[in-house]
C-alpha cells in the first residue's frame, strides 16, 4: 500500500480514523462488523463510527472533562469500547484500556497510578470496582455501558449520556506531541509501568499496518488481540481504520 497519510497540522488519531475517512469519501463504507457471542451481528460505517465517537466526546465535555484528563475503559469487545476510546481521543484525553479479566489489585495499580478521572465499564464489574474505589480519590465518574438510566451522580448510563449528545463534534487541532494512549506493562516483572504515547504515533501505526500487515483498502481485517493491550489498540483500532479498512470484531464470551 503506497498511499500516504495526510496529516497537515491535525495529528488527532481519532479524527484521522473517523472524520477524515468520511471526508475522503468512505462515510458509507463498512468500518466494523461486530459479532456478539449470541445474536445478530451489527454493522457500523465510518460515518457511524464518527457520529458515535462524537456523541461520546460531547458527553465527556458535558461532564466537565478537559484535555489532559485521564479516562480508562474496562470492557470486553463491545462497540462501546471503540466509540469510547475514539471519543476520548477526540477530546484530547489521555486514554487507557484495561484487560477485562484484571482483578482488583491490577486495576488499583493502574487507575491509581494514572490518576484516572473516568472509568467506562459494565454492570458486572461494578462490585469489583466498588471494593477499591475508596482508594481511588481521583476517580469522579463510572460510565456504565449496560445501564439504561443513571444510578447516581457519579455512576452514569452510557446510553443516556450519548443519546442526549450531539453526533457532531469538531476535534480540536491536535499537535504531534499531545498525549494520546496510556498503556501499562503486564506487571509480570514488577509493579506495572505506564508508557504514555502521543498522537504522532499514528505515523508509525499507519506505516507498519501497510508494510508489515500488507493491508489494502478493500481488505477485511481481524485482530485477535484484546483492546486491553497495546496490540489491540494499535492494530485493532488505529492502524486499519487510519487506512479506511473494514474490521471484524467478535465478542467471544458474555
Explain how this protein is built:
- It is globular, with a radius of gyration of 17 Å.
- The chain is an alpha/beta fold.
- The protein has helices at 13-17, 19-26, 46-62, 79-90, 104-114, 126-130, 158-163, 202-211, 230-242; strands spanning 30-35, 42-45, 70-74, 94-98, 118-121, 141-144, 155-157, 179-184, 194-198, 220-222, 246-250.
- It has nine helices and eleven strands.
Question: What are the defining features of this structure?
Answer:
34% helix, 254 residues, alpha/beta, single chain
Brief description of this entry?
This protein is of the alpha/beta class and 254 residues long. Helices cover 34% and strands 20% of the residues.
Would you tell me the overall average pLDDT? 94
The Rg value, from CA coordinates, equals 17 Å
> What structural class results from the helix and strand content?
alpha/beta
- Mind describing the biggest β-sheet? 5 strands, parallel
State the strand order across the main sheet: 4-3-5-6-7
Total beta strand runs: 11
* Helix-residue proportion: 25-40%
Question: Treating each run of at least 4 consecutive H or I residues as one helix, how many helices?
Answer: 9
* Overall shape: globular
Task: Please specify the SSE layout and strand pairing.
Layout: H1 13-17, H2 19-26, E1 30-35, E2 42-45, H3 46-62, E3 70-74, H4 79-90, E4 94-98, H5 104-114, E5 118-121, H6 126-130, E6 141-144, E7 155-157, H7 158-163, E8 179-184, E9 194-198, H8 202-211, E10 220-222, H9 230-242, E11 246-250
Parallel strand pairs: 1-11, 3-4, 3-5, 5-6, 6-7, 10-11
Antiparallel strand pairs: 1-2, 8-9
Amino acid at each position: 500500500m503506497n498511499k500516504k497519510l495526510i496529516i497537515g497540522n491535525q495529528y488527532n488519531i481519532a479524527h484521522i480514523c473517523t472524520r477524515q475517512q468520511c471526508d475522503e469519501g468512505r462515510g458509507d463504507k463498512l468500518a466494523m462488523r461486530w459479532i456478539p457471542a449470541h445474536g445478530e451481528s451489527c454493522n457500523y460505517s465510518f460515518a457511524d463510527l464518527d457520529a458515535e465517537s462524537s456523541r461520546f466526546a460531547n458527553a465527556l465535555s458535558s461532564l466537565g472533562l478537559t484535555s489532559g484528563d485521564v479516562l480508562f475503559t474496562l470492557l470486553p469487545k463491545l462497540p462501546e469500547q471503540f466509540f469510547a476510546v475514539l471519543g476520548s481521543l477526540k477530546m484530547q484525553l489521555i486514554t487507557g484500556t484495561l484487560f477485562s479479566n484484571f482483578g482488583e489489585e491490577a486495576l488499583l495499580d493502574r487507575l491509581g497510578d494514572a490518576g484516572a478521572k473516568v472509568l467506562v465499564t459494565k454492570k458486572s464489574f461494578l462490585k469489583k470496582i466498588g471494593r477499591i474505589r475508596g482508594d481511588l480519590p481521583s476517580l469522579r465518574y463510572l460510565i456504565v455501558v449496560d445501564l439504561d438510566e443513571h444510578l447516581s451522580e457519579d455512576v452514569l448510563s452510557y446510553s443516556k449520556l450519548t443519546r442526549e449528545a450531539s453526533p457532531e463534534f469538531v476535534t480540536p487541532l491536535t499537535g504531534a506531541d499531545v498525549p494520546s494512549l496510556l498503556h501499562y506493562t503486564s506487571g509480570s516483572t514488577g509493579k506495572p509501568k505506564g508508557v504514555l504515547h502521543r498522537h504522532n504515533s499514528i505515523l508509525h501505526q499507519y506505516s507498519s499496518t501497510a508494510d508489515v500487515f500488507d493491508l489494502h483498502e478493500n481488505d477485511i481485517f481481524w485482530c485477535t488481540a484484546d483492546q486491553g493491550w497495546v496490540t489491540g489498540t494499535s492494530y485493532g483500532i488505529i492502524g486499519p481504520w487510519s487506512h479506511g479498512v473494514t474490521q471484524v470484531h467478535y465478542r467471544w464470551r458474555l
